[in-house]
Amino acid sequence: MSNALTATDLHYAYPDGQVALTGVSFTVSPGERLALLGPNGAGKTTLAHHLNGIRRGNRGWVEVGDLRLDDGTVAEIRRRVGLVFQNADDQLFMPTVGQDVAFGPANLGIAGEHLEKVVTEALAAVGAEELVPRVPHHLSGGERRKVALATVLAMEPSVLVLDEPTSGLDPAGRRELIEVLETLPMAQLVITHDLPFALELCDRTLIMDGGRIVADGETAEILGDEALLKMHRLEMP
Amino acid sequence: MGVGHAHALYVHEHSIIHRLPPETKVLGVLLFVAAIAVTPREAIWAFAIYAAIEVVVVISARVPFTFVLSRLLTVVPFVLFALFLPMIGEGKDVVFVGIPLSSEGVWSMWNILAKSVLGATASILLAASTEVPDIVRGFGRLRVPAVITGIASFMIRYLEVIAGELTRMRTAMVARGYDPRWLSQARPIASSAGTLFVRSYERGERVYDAMLSRGYTGEMPAIDSHTTSAGEWAVALFLPLVAIGTAVTAFVTL
Lengths: 237, 254
What we know:
heterodimer; A: alpha/beta; 6-stranded mixed sheet; 4-stranded antiparallel sheet; B: mainly alpha; 2 domains; flat
């Protein structure tokens, strides 16, 4: 059985010359929840943008299931890899929640009653069915995060990539998010600075620093290694 | 915060007017305003009919009259100059309480006042009975190009986000002792406008990334699949058609 996601030797430098990725390789198994930790500027968000092809590296490649990312497959890869952005105001760009959740599946050609059903199911999966007619600007932080997740779930991805999903959430919102993510069957890669969150949700953890993966192992083991954490500007509370 | 219907122009009600599909209301208002605009100014009775139609809509939409009147204040600056037309018009041929006035000027004043107040009332009623995203959706269903409705909906979505950013920047300046009184202190305001522009531009790029991530291919997808019944069109267009009939009659009988 193939991996849910494979990244092989990804390199990337921004147009201004700033180097962000210097040979990133890792795999995610189907259904696995994986935490990606690392200091600010380690390249975590840049890596996330590579996984569904909104950025393409100078070297290396990404495979999702049995499909390798290239010009011909990028549309299908974007459907399979659901990317939840750090800032929900960037993710939610349509006038209402319902239209926003419908945006992705509508791009896939889904329409009419089927579209309505997909939207309702995606919002139900995060426990936010009642938000359909609401305006994104008037949602609370926790509601925004759930809706942002629903917009991606509506495309039925096989891998979820979440960029700092707990930032700005109150403890109850964070708890609800954990509960939602635990019910989702697809593979999940969670970028976070919230180490207890990683420990609770993910069996495996990667640490990234200076554009490379510097540690890959069981979460409990990695988070127990104080020297390793300190070296990469991480700290358990 | 936390309420879906927070727009200042909207009156939350469940009237027959609120329930009509947005595109029927948008088209109805456009036709109604067009009828008002082309009506000859001498047909005073026609304007009375238009006003009566608006009163009917105000009552059936359960919008308070005071709400409409307070919103109408918006047109005051635009019609102020019309009040001077009788005094500055050519040929002072009538005298009103001792002031010589031009009858041509009086007609022009009437024309501007009547048409702007009636037209503004129509759009106030549209906004009061239709939420902003629905108005955009209405234009979309009327086959307005997706580029235009897209720009409008992004503007609506991000106006408050950007206004919030501006407020936070102002607060940050005030918190560090900035208290502008003189023109020479305007510099930080100018540079914050620049900062706001750059931030909005960067946000635009992130939003575009988010759109690409969900399969955007350069064209806004068709999300809206509602079909409007002939009955709904008939209800929405009945009064505008009465207005058009009035306008035509006014033309013919003059």
